[in-house]
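Subject: Sanity check before I submit

Could someone independently write out the structure tokens for this chain? I want to compare against mine line by line before I put it in a report. The sequence has 446 residues.
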Amino acid sequence: MVKTKTSFVCQNCGGSFPAWSGKCQNCGEWNSLVETISESKTGGSRASNRDSKIERLSEIKGNDFSRAKTGMEEFDRVVGGGIVPGSLILIGGDPGIGKSTLVLQVADKLLKDRASVLYSSGEESAYQLKLRADRLGIESKSLLVFPETNIETIIGQVESEKPNFLIIDSIQTMWSEDLTGAPGSIGQVSLSTSKLMDFAKKNHIATFIIGHVTKEGNIAGPKILEHLVDTVLYLEGDKMADFRILRCVKNRFGSTNETGVFEMGDKGLTEVKNPSAILLSEKTNASGSAVFATMEGTRPLLVEVQALTNQTNFGYPKRTASGFDLNRLQVLTAVLSKRAGLNLLNQDIFVNIVGGIKIKEPALDLAVCLAIASSYKNKPLPKNICVFGEVGLAGEIRAVHNIKERLKEAKKLGFNNCIIPKTNEKFDIKAKTVNNLKEAIEAVLG
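---
Independent answer below. Compare away.
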């Protein structure tokens, strides 16, 4: 006997309620409840068909598998050294950022290593997928293409073909026969992912899932989606810029501190072995420019910070930031005015991180402040100088982590002069140390 049940599900958190309301009681989101019809079978119990047994931890062999190398060093490092058999990898990112391009190139690399890959696309037909592969120069004739959105049909074909890898593009287009509801709804996304997880673990088939993101930058669907999978990757970057950063935010089989840098071109994504040199290749010795050593995971990266100050034509000065937190810029501007004596109350301030890279770490504070001071005084910073440090509200320069790695990367690219916090001198590093913001400005601008 089949009983039809209706509930209202929040599209933000996945909470279920018997009646509609304007505000979700779980997450507080407004107008997020959508009526969902589900079907549940009664009169029987649901048993697992998995052949499970109890084992002692000491008797389980953990070295029976080997990670699959894709040949893309940037990708392999991010996922922990290679792809673990039976793992579920979720890849998210903005529309058009290159998610499908990345997984198609990964599939091509795996096929060259004599692996079998099945690509199930719910957004493109087989002909459209062929056109994209031709544009990227992918000539793998053994790639299995299956344009389908029904998750049971896909799993049935995978059981028949038995590939080593499965690609789902995208999870928001998939639907299951066991649940009534449109593809992309909370229930369909959760159930489809759960079935893929059970199938991947049972058959040791590594599965890639492409997921859409919301306007806030989070993966669309309930948070349980990220809890179900083994690895969550985000492909970030400005669509108008060339660089893409593959960032890991969850990894059950490796570190979450690794990032990969790619460059988007006519033939897809190419690995960037030395991103610091490329980002600084067009740097000029003009006022308002500073070089900063950031940490992308465990990799040091040198980027250029540009600032421009100009006398405002209005009563309220404008503050604009690209790749940097605007609220943090407001705070640093106040510190520069109060602690360093720069009259910025009538100045429009614009800050840009070159290359379309977004940086959130507080070690960027000192570079932003010195770039603003350089533009305000119309005096460039000395050549071959690299700066980093967190700026406090009292104008003090606070210590940063991974100081040795940052300085090593700076020295490798010819930046022999560095301005670092005084508290970091305990590492016995040869660099100019400063206590506060005013002292740092005097050291580089006089």
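---
OP: Matches mine. For the report I'm noting this point. Residues 341 and 438 are 8 Å apart (CA to CA).
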